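User: For my dataset I need records formatted as: sequence, then structure tokens, nothing else. Please produce one.
Assistant:
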Amino acid sequence: MYALNIEYNAVPFTALSSERGGLGVHLYNSDEGYVHLHVMVRRGNDQKADYWLKTIKPGDILRFTYCRASADTSDTISEIEACSAPNGRYELSLGCRIGFEVQSEKREKVRLSHPPEGGFDFMLANIPLNHARCSVMADNETESWNWQLDDLYDGDSIQLDFVETTWNTPFPRVERINEDD
């Protein structure tokens, strides 16, 4: 059994699964100015559950830790939905876009965002089962950016500090989108 421990502003939640690809996270920026968190959990026998936190904003912190679960580990991920703020909009400061600073034990801190007038997707999944893969994709109508972040093995963590920003660390892979495609 594997666990994905998620801390949202220092409040802990745990998702459990013994399935390959049974734990997944998708973060993306929304039209309302917030970042949405979608947690997907497969528990076997075609049992799948989805949990949402739709009001992540600059100043918020998410920390993900992937690990083997002990027999007494409790699945508490359903409680994360109570952290959502009432519906509304988050207005970014003029000229800013939402981004996040990535911190892990294996690399220097980097700031990730998206091209102007674009969006981003952060994904984490335990497809190989013994570890979780993390990646970020960002794009707009003219560019596509990709970054494979560090894999998380038993006990490894990655932290995302959400910020308003006008810049980001250059992505290692940037492609220009051809209008004819």
